[in-house]
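Project channel, design review

CF: Before we commit to the Rhizobium puerariae constructs, I'd like one complete example in the thread so the newer folks can see what an input/output pair looks like. Taking 3-deoxy-D-manno-octulosonic acid transferase.
RD: sounds good, go ahead.
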Amino acid sequence: MSSGLARTALFGYRLAGVMLYPMVGPYLSYRAVKGKEDRSRRLERLGYASMSRPRGPLVWVHAASVGETIAIMPLIRELRRREIHVLLTTGTVTSANLVRSRLADEVIHQYVPLDVKFPIKRFIAYWKPDACITAESEIWPTTVSELARRRIPQIRVNARISDRSFERWRNHGSIAEALFEKMALVVAQSDLDAERFRDLGAWPVIVSGNLKSDTDPPPCDEAVLARYRKEIGGRQVWAAISTFEGEEKAVATVHRTLKPKHGQLTILVPRHPDRADAIEAMLKETGLTVARRSRNDPLTPETDIFLGDSIGEMGLYLRLVEIAFVGKSLADAQGGQNPLEPAMLGCAVLSGPHVQNFRDAYQHLVRKGGARIIKDVEMLAKAVHYLMINDLARRKMVDSGHDAMEEMRGALSKTVKALEPYINPLTVSARLQPKAATPAAAAVR
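CF: and here is what came back for 3-deoxy-D-manno-octulosonic acid transferase:
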């Protein structure tokens, strides 16, 4: 595709957004009914601010959902340490709840405006960010163009690009170049990601590693943890986390296979808790007894499956086990989920073969011996059985996972160093602001 056709395609995208703008209100209302939008804050999606802009330098940080938000928290705290205000946008209700619980009054939180001309222009005109930092992989053409038009630096951190996305962008090379060349800086997770961003037109690109390796372990309520440990008692237990449709049936099969040998408890944490009713029905159809976290059900000796259908409690579930299967990895083209949290919380990590979204992390863990890749349900059952009966092998995997995590640390310092040309002037400006006129960042709604 020529550059002229690329410009025409991007113009068509923006024009389509303008033409469909009258339908945005009903669309957001529909999503609110489905629980995918915060009804009381829908206007934020149209670019209307619900909070005041503080005086002084402000950086717009965007994290699409929960995983990206967790990854970027240490960087946000570094910006706040430098007295730079942080406007954090996210796109989901669950990530907004996470911001409220974890970042408290450290940031100003807004839902990200839709990638349509009017909301984006309204949003940027009000907040006037000095820079925009986006986590990982989202590219929104209208937002990119509007920021570039105002010469606001666009920086991508913890950047990655999946196999599927890379092929899609490469097939539309002129469009990719027209967007990626507008980035002031890309800080990539791995050498492969960096090479792909350069191929698509981004420059400069550096490699930092994965910011998720520098995050703190997910927290948990110690009283709740103690209660469940008491209820589990001496039973063997393992977890399947971040599972997607189809994998819950595989987990049920593994549980039924191993139950005569171990009488174990299986903790099942779906990636999308709103599927919990359907998952519970499926499990009960196979004759399994289910306790649900959302109902605060007790764990009895008869409980087969503890269904972790709550938000923000991965730290609880992983502290109850030493064996964790990480989902979205058994079916082809799914891409895997983050293995770093189970590794840092002392779990031997198991995964299906499809982990391209976290390829670098799995390579480190597998090379050190902290993770094993299994190809199917039968192999998963054998791996869980082996780790349950072999304490030495299980502890070796746990220790190796800790070693791998230590090796992977350092992404935050590399990222901050790369950002210094952009944030050092803002730090100076922030510290020159009259203290009485520089309120702390407004509380998250």
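RD: helpful, thanks. Residues 437-445 have pLDDT under 50 and may be disordered.
CF: The longest strand covers residues 237-243.
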